[in-house]
Amino acid sequence: MTLLHVPSTDDLTDEALAELNAEFERSSAGEVVEWAVERFHPQMCLTASMTDAVLIDVATKVEPAVEVVFIDTGYHFPETLETLELVRRRYGLNLRIMTVTPHAVPVWKSDPVNCCTPDKVAQLERALVGKRAWMSGLRRQESKSRQDAPIVSRDRRGLVKLNPLANWTDLDVEGYIADHDVPVNPLLRKGYPSIGCWPCTRPVIPGEDPRAGRWAGLEKTECGLHDEVAP
Ligand code: SF4
User: How far apart, in whole angstroms, are the C-alpha atoms of residue 101 and residue 74?
Assistant: First the structure.
C-alpha cells in the first residue's frame, strides 16, 4: 500500500486530511487501520457497541493488541452483553470496559435527552485520556445524520478520529460477516439494525431509517459519542 506520508500526524492540516480522505476512499479498511496503527498504537483505541464485530475483526488482524473500549451504561440488552463476551473470547481482546455509575433514579426516565451526555460521553472522555487517535465502526449508510462522515478527521478534542468502514454499504458488511464468520448481536436478526440501550431502542420496520428505533419519538438521533457527524 502506498499512502501519503504525513511527517507529523499531530499537525494534520485540513489540506492533509482532505488528501488522506481521498486516498482512504480507495483503500481497504485494513489499510486505513494499518496507517493508524503505524502512527498511533498504543495511544489509540477502538470503540465498540457490539452490534457486530466487523471493525474488531479488521483491526485485530492488523494489531491483535489494539485497545477495544466498550461503554457499559448499565442498560444494555442481555444479547449485547453476551455478544461482548463472545467477541472478547473469540479475539482475545485487549478489552477496556468503561462502566457508568448507576443513578438512584435512572436518568433516562427523568431526562432522556441528556442521559447519554453526562454518563456515556463522560466515559468516552475518560477512555480517551492519553490517546492520540480513536476508531469507530460508524458508516454513512447507517443514517442521514452520518451520510457525510469522513474516514479520517480531527474530532472536537483535536484527536484523530477514524471511521475505517465509513464507505461500506450494508451489503459490504453482510458479505464480510459471512466471509469471515464474524460474531453479530442476535438482535440484528430480530429487527434491530442499530442497537443501543434497551430503554431507548426499538426494532424498526422495513423501509424505516436503520436508526429510527433509537430514541424514537424524540428529536435526539445521536448519543453524542460521534457528535462531529451530528452536532
Ligand atoms: S441510550 Fe438511553 S439509556 Fe443509554 S445512555 Fe443514552 S439516554 Fe441513557
Answer: 8
Per-residue confidence in pLDDT tens, the chain, 231 aa: 444 444 345 568 999 999 999 999 999 999 999 999 999 999 999 999 999 999 999 999 999 999 999 999 999 999 999 999 999 999 999 999 999 988 888 888 778 777 787 788 899 999 999 999 999 999 999 888 889 999 999 999 999 999 999 999 999 999 999 999 999 999 999 999 889 999 889 999 888 888 888 878 777 777 777 766 433
Answer for the pair 108, 201: CB distance below 8 angstroms, yes or no.
no
Distance of alpha carbon 54 from alpha carbon 44, whole angstroms:
18
Query: 70, 111, 197: which to mutate for ligand 1, most atoms within 8 A of CB?
Result: 197
Cβ–Cβ < 8 Å for 100, 72: yes
Catalytic residue list contains 116: no
36 Cα: distance to centroid of ligand 1 (angstroms): 30
Q: Is the CB of 118 under 6 A from ligand 1?
A: no
Model pTM score = 0.90
- How far apart, in Å, are the Cα atoms of 214 and each of 23, 63, 217? 33, 32, 9
